[in-house]
C-alpha cells in the first residue's frame, strides 16, 4: 500500500525533529523521576545536548582541566587553582570587595555525557588504560591520553579524612551519589553563572550586592567538579564542615555573577600555602568561589 504524502511528510518531520531537536534522553527521564522538583542546571543540559564536536566526529574535549582544591590540601604540589577564588569567611557580606584578580571563565568545552548504558560498557580504571583509550578514540601518548590517565588516578586516590568521594561517569550516577549522601530527593543544584548569557566574567573588582549572600539550606553539601576526560566525568565529594552560599557579585563594568561559594570552618588539616596567600593564621575559616560549571548539591530544607 502506498503511503499518503502527508504520512511521509510527517515521518520525515519526526526524523528531523529527532536528529536536530532535543529528543528526550534516558538521563533526562531519570532526572525527572528521581528529582521531580529540581530544575536541571544549564551546564548539565548543555552536556546532554552538546553543540560542538570536533571535526573528525570524535568526542569534544576538556580544554581547561581543573585540579581539585583538595590536592593542594593533601600534597606537595603548588597552589593548583586560582588563588583569587579564595577569601575569608568574615568577608562574606553585602558590600564586601573581593580579590581584584577575580574572574570567572568557562572551564569545560562541551564534553558530553554518555548514557549510563554506554559508559557501563567502558572500563574506568587505570589498569585498563589502553582499552579505555581505544574505546574513546584517544591516541596513546597524546596530551589527552595523559589527562585521561591523570583523571583515573585522581579518581582512584584514597579519600581524605572525613571525605566521601565518587567519580560520576554518567548523570544518573551523579544523581545517585548526591541523593544517597544527602539522604533526600529534595535537592537544589547550584552552579556559578554569569548573568545575561555571557560566557565569562572578566578580571576586575567585584563587590557583593546588597542582600547578595544566600546560605544554602541544609547542613551538608556535595560538590561536583568536572574532570579532564573525553566525555563528561565529575569528581563528586561530600566534605566535613562545609557550607554553601550563592553570592551575587557585581563587577565595576556591571557584569553580574551568581557565584557559588563553599566555606570551610575546619581548615586545621589544610596546607600552609592557603593561609599564606590570605595572610591569616592557620585554621582560620576559608571560603572559595567555585569556577563556572562546577556543581553544588544541597538539600532544599
Ligand atoms: C599513569 O599515571 C600513573 C600515576 O600517575 C603513572 O605512574 C603512569 O606512568 C601513567 N601511565 C601513562 C601511560 O602515562
UniProtKB/TrEMBL annotation:
Entry annotated with the keyword Signal: yes
PROSITE patterns hit by this protein: BURP (PS51277)
Pfam family, one: BURP
SMART domains per record: BURP (SM01045)
Residue ranges of domain BURP in the record: 86-300
Residues of the signal peptide: 1-18
Residue ranges of the TM segments: none
InterPro entries: BURP, BURP_dom
UniProt keyword terms in alphabetical order: Signal
Stated name of the protein: BURP domain-containing protein 3-like
Upper classification of the organism: Eukaryota, Viridiplantae, Streptophyta, Embryophyta, Tracheophyta
Amino acid at each position: 500500500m502506498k503511503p499518503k504524502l502527508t504520512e511521509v511528510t510527517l515521518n520525515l518531520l519526526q526524523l528531523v525533529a529527532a536528529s536536530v531537536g532535543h529528543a528526550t534522553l534516558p538521563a533526562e527521564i531519570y532526572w525527572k523521576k528521581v528529582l521531580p522538583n529540581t530544575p536541571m542546571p544549564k551546564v548539565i543540559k548543555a552536556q546532554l545536548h552538546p553543540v560542538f564536536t570536533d571535526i573528525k566526529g570524535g568526542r569534544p574535549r576538556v580544554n581547561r582541566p581543573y585540579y581539585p582544591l583538595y590536592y593542594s590540601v593533601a600534597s606537595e604540589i603548588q597552589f593548583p587553582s586560582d588563588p583569587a577564588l579564595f577569601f575569608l569567611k568574615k568577608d562574606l557580606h553585602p558590600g564586601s570587595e573581593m580579590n581584584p584578580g577575580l574572574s570567572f571563565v568557562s572551564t569545560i568545552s562541551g564534553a558530553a555525557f554518555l548514557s549510563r548504558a554506554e559508559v557501563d560498557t567502558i572500563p574506568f580504571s587505570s589498569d585498563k588504560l589502553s582499552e579505555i583509550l581505544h574505546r574513546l578514540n584517544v591516541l596513546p601518548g597524546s596530551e589527552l591520553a595523559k589527562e585521561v590517565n591523570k583523571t583515573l588516578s585522581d579518581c582512584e586516590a584514597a579519600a581524605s579524612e572525613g571525605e566521601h568521594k565518587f567519580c560520576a561517569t554518567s548523570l544518573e550516577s551523579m544523581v545517585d551519589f548526591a541523593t544517597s549522601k544527602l539522604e533526600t530527593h529534595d535537592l537544589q543544584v547550584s552552579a556559578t553563572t554569569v548573568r545575561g548569557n555571557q560566557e565569562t566574567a572578566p578580571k576586575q573588582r567585584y563587590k557583593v550586592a546588597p542582600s547578595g549572600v544566600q546560605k544554602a539550606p541544609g547542613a551538608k553539601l556535595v560538590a561536583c567538579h568536572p574532570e579532564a576526560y573525553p566525555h563528561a566525568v565529575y569528581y563528586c565529594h561530600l566534605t566535613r564542615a562545609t557550607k554553601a552560599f550563592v553570592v551575587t557579585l557585581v563587577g565595576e563594568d556591571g557584569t553580574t555573577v551568581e557565584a557559588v561559594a563553599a566555606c570551610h570552618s575546619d581548615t586545621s588539616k589544610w596546607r600552609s600555602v592557603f593561609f599564606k596567600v590570605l595572610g591569616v593564621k592557620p585554621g582560620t575559616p576559608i571560603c572559595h568561589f567555585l569556577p563556572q560549571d562546577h556543581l553544588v548539591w544541597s538539600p532544599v530544607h
